[in-house]
Structures are given as C-alpha cells and as structure tokens.
C-alpha cells in the first residue's frame, strides 16, 4: 500500500488549513468562518498547528466549492484529543505529513450537518469518501469512538462540532493498516513491526485481509514494546521482529487469534465491561468503559491488563485498538 489513505481528488479541492488570517471584511455581519473560529480559540491550538503542518492548500475561511450552499461540517478535535495520542502543537513532526493531512480531511464533510441528525447507527461520509458511524451511549453521542462535546457551532461557511478524540481511518484493511504502521507511513518511527512479522509467520494474512463476503473484526494490536515484554516474560530476547520465530508457529497463531473478535468491528463507544470470545478460543475480559477506553485481559495474563494506546482505528474490515500488552490464552 503506497499510502495510508485512499487518495482522492477531493484532497486537492478541499480546503483545510486553519492558519490563515481573516479580517472582519471576510464575513462582515455574518458569523465568522470555520477558520476564524479555530484560530481564535486556544483550545484548538494543536488542531491549528496540525493543519499548517499538514500542508493542505487553502483555508476554511472560504465557501466549499463542492457544496451547493458552500458549507462544510467539521468535527474538531480539541487539544485534549491530541494529547490522548501524546501530541501537541510542538511535536506533530513525529507523524508523516501525508498521514496527518488525510487525518484532517477525515474530520470534514460537505454540507451542513446538525446535531439533531446524529441518530444512533446513522453514518456520515467524510471528505475521503469514508463513512463514520454515530453511536449513542448513556445520553451522549459519539462519532466512531469520539465523544461529541459540543454541537452546532455556527460559522459563515458551515458548522463545527467539538470532539474528544482524533478520529483515525486507514482506508485499508486490517493487514494493510498494520503494514502502514510497520512501514512508517503513520509515525516516522516504525510500529507494529513484531505484529506484522507474527501475522506473516503464522500464515494469517489471508484471514485478516478484506475480501468479498469476509467478516469484519475487532482487533487488539499489541505494540512492539508489548512483544518485547512478552519475550522477557518467556525468558527469551525479542530485539527484532524475526525473533518471534523462536516460538512455534502454532503457538504464535493461537496467541494472535486471541486478539481477534469476529463481531463486526466495534469502536470503544460500542464496547462494555464483560467477556469477549476471540477466535483463539479463550475469553477476554474487558474492564469498565472509562474516559473513552477500556482495559482488556487474557486468561493467561493473570491480573495484568492491557491498556489502549491508540483506540478506534477504522479499517475497511473492522476496528483496530492498539494495546500495550500481548493478550495470552491458556497455552
């Protein structure tokens, strides 16, 4: 996969840089533009910096040429949303620019969409032609796994809704998404390199690749450090991905399948504390839903829980939650 996202000509036409200045004459007596709302609010300084670093031409101070009424709808992650990923306006350079650009576009839609239309189970198509799902939970509304904190902020060229997580979609299936991280198409430093090696070694690429009629999955994806920690716990040294091949192939396959649930692909906002049945056979235990994430534990982990480092990554055949521990079955 050459790029993390399916490229679209809309990325050339869509306007998403919050960094430009806007004068009063731009909107005169009307509401300020989406751009002006962002740059004038310190709670969105990380979003403003991300848009500048993303290098997309133009500004959201203008009308949308792809909408008859000239409007956009923007789901705007606040500074706390970026902080969940360890990001702020000063360290966005750890991300590949193309990934960041397309991530921003994933938060934008053509036309005006108001909060009253966010009905449980309905969808909204982003500027990357990828759908996002609305979910209601406990009186709150979520888009994918991101909680909508404020709705219907009026702008001269559309509407802004504030969310508490940065939404991430890959445009590829589960395997392609893992490879994108492994090949440094997301972060400039490779990640999930052990997981990709393990999937190849265990002959599971085909099972996790999207095809016509294939199921969708929820996948818990352990980080490289999680695999290194597993090696240490087993009395082995995992310093490079191929070291996973010290384990028997059937053991690696069983462990990997313990991370895959054939439940259609669930965002955190659709998960509850309790038991999940992975393809590996031994149950997983989800902890309480707290601040938009859940812990997860395998029966072979004892009381040691895995935390979600990057939750709610949308793939074409499911949802990926990057976790900080390998989930062990009974071996």
How does this structure look, described?
This protein is an alpha+beta fold. It has two domains: 10-169, FAS1 domain (Roll), CATH 2.30.180; 174-323, FAS1 domain (Roll). Helix content is 23%, strand content 22%. It contains ten helices and 15 strands. It has helices at residues 10-13, 34-39, 45-54, 79-83, 97-105, 174-182, 193-201, 205-208, 224-233, 249-257, and strands spanning 72-77, 108-110, 123-125, 131-137, 140-143, 146-155, 158-163, 168-169, 217-222, 260-261, 274-276, 284-286, 296-298, 308-315, 318-323. The strands form three sheets. The protein has a seven-stranded mixed β-sheet with strand order 2-1-7-6-5-4-3. A five-stranded mixed β-sheet has the order 8-14-15-9-10. A three-stranded antiparallel β-sheet has the order 11-12-13, with no helix packed on it. Helix 6 (174-182) crosses helix 7 and helix 7 (193-201) crosses helix 10. The longest helix has 10 residues, at 45-54. It starts with 9 loop residues before the first helix and ends in an 8-residue tail after the last strand.
CATH homologous superfamily identity of the largest domain: FAS1 domain
CATH architectural arrangement of the largest domain = Roll
- Major beta sheet, specifics? 7 strands, mixed
| CATH topology-level fold name of the largest domain | FAS1 domain
- Secondary-structure element sequence? HHHEHHEEEEEEEHHHEHHEEEEEE
Q: What would the average pLDDT be, to the nearest integer? A: 89
Residue windows where pLDDT falls under 50 for at least 5 positions: 1-29
- Identify the overall geometry: elongated
Q: Please state roughly what percent of the residues sit in beta strands, choosing from under 5%, 5-15%, 15-25%, 25-35%, 35-45% or over 45%.
A: 15-25%
Name of the CATH class of the largest domain: Mainly Beta
Determine Rg (CA atoms, Å): 21 Å
* Total discrete domains: 2
What is the terminal-to-terminal distance?
Answer: 35 Å
Number of helices: 10
Q: Identify the strand order in the major beta sheet.
A: 2-1-7-6-5-4-3
Supply the helix-strand structural class.
alpha+beta
Question: How many beta-strand runs?
Answer: 15
Secondary structure: helix percent = 10-25%
